[in-house]
Amino acid sequence: MSISMYQVAIPVFLRALNNLHHVLKLGQTHAKHKNVDDSVMLQTRLIPDMLPLVKQVQIATDMAKNGAARLAGVDPLKFEDNETSFEELYSRIERAIDYIKSFKPEQIDGSETRAITIKTRNNELSFEGQAYLLHFVIPNLFFHCTTAYDILRVAGAGIGKEDYIGKP
How far apart are CA 137 and CA 8, in angstroms? Predict the structure, then answer.
């Protein structure tokens, strides 16, 4: 039995973003309980040279929505990176989820060898679709979701592995 590119990508992206939304809600509840302003929590970092919570969420949503679009061979939907509250981050995640849900299996399946080139801050990267999904998008998506989780956990939020992984 084989698994399709759609099956590897879309459900994984959706689950990761839904779980990120859940973890952020718990983090916001913790912040409110401790009288920590959204702006302070959203700018919290693990260490000074890492990006803050808000940027981790922005990058995670970009990885998922842009990954789906590029696998489908379309230009990704652009989001402004201007969120300053938890509510705005929830809206961003929800918009990304809605966008990802709009892709049909026939748009993603067969993209294993699709040429995908992306520009990063430092250079241009070229992939075939399967390598892009498995070796770039998924690892980056989970890195940024995990880092967001870690920031909230270090800040004292009562979250655990089950919150991050979600229910099967």
Answer: 11
Structure tokens at 32: 């409110």
pLDDT of residue 72: 98
In the numeric block, which tokens belong to residue 6?
């759609």
Q: What is the DSSP letter of 135?
A: I
Torsion of CA 32, 37, 38, 44, to 10 degrees: -110
The residues with which 126 forms a beta bridge, in sequence order, are 117
CA distances, 38 to each of 29, 50, 69 (Å)? 10, 19, 31
CATH of domain 5-165: 1.20.120.450
- Whether the model clears a pTM of 0.90, i.e. scores above it, the answer is yes
Where along the chain do its domains lie? 5-165
Tokens of 36: 């920590």
What tens digit of pLDDT does each residue of 114-162 get?
999 999 889 999 999 999 999 999 999 999 999 999 999 999 999 999 9
- Cβ atoms of 46 and 150 within 8 Å: the answer is yes
Task: Please count the other Cβ atoms lying within 10 Å of the Cβ belonging to residue 95.
Answer: 14
* Start-end of H helices in 34-111: 38-42, 53-72, 86-101, 105-108
Distance CA 142, CA 44 (A): 19
